[in-house]
Amino acid sequence: KMALAVGWHLKQDWCQSLAPGSNASALALNTDLRKIGEKSLPENVAEAATLEKDTVVQIVKIKNVSAPTVNQSSPHAPRMLRIQVTDGHQKFNAIEFSKVGSLSLDTPPGSKILLPAAVSVRLFSDSPHCLQFQTEIYKGCIILPTSLKFLGGLVPEIVEKWEVKRQFSGLTMNRHINTEAPKFRQFNPSKRVENNKGHGGDTGTINRTTGQTRNQPNQKRENKVLHEEANTQHKMDKGKSQRKDRDKQATKHIEKEHNKGHERLGKSTVE
Question: Residue 201 — very low, low, confident or very high, per pLDDT cuts 50/70/90?
Fold first, then answer.
């Protein structure tokens, strides 16, 4: 009964295995709840609307859902923690809509928190009356009350794995962030043509900027681009030449018609 009063739901055989006078709650803090916990949450959390009773649960992992996965501690992302917890038999998510000061990304898994079934809210600081609100469950996700109690605890085997994972994920993230991307270089067709001509057309496989040898696929692709550019330029020059010829023919035709008009005008005057 005392365990139920503080939200603990432990297996009876484990409690009976303890030495007389032992504090079961204190010992349970540093023990994996998956080994000693009794079922305390609704069988179908997705259909439940409120938490039926005070329940001690164990933190599985914490994530800031508003921050990128590779940089959970980003100062530019607002805080909105999603805590995955377990009663020892089933896992479910809890969302922090209002900041809970006792929880953070540095809170190790295995820690225990007490979820109250009801939350008391005092309307005025000097008022003796309080309003009772049930801890809500929305679509299988518990809305964390700010009045939850952080009990703490340290489960060595869980914390050890968590610290190793954080260490390696931090190294991976730093390696990803510190990788220098190649500098952007503006495309200049004329320089590429000059580079190609300066090295003997198709045989020019040396990059004048880097001094490195270009591989064959890149060289073929560049030669194809140069060929297309030359064809385009040839077509443009041919078009200009044709337009000039048409302009000359049109000018000659106009002059010829103009001269014929003068000749007709002269004959009519003489007559």
Answer: very low
